[in-house]
Amino acid sequence: MTKPAQTNTVAGKELLSFIERVERLNEEKKSLGDDVKDVLGEAKGKGFDVKIIRKVISLRGQDRVKRQEEQEMLDLYMQSIGMMG
User: Fold this and answer.
1) Full domain range(s) for residue 79
2) How many distinct structural domains can be found in the chain?
């Protein structure tokens, strides 16, 4: 993170404050991403399928009705191309 030599205006100081806040949040986000990788690595080490874990997390984040509608459409499409049944 580099700072400019001088901010001469109130607007410049405010802008710099926003920029520095975003930079700190980006650093935190990277750290959290590393933490997620560590947890998933632990799960993989215990024999769990990380791809499936990520899918379950994604599904848990969806609205129940939306998730059911998508599943019904997926089933319909798969059935129509002979992948089910």
Assistant:
1) 49-85
2) 2
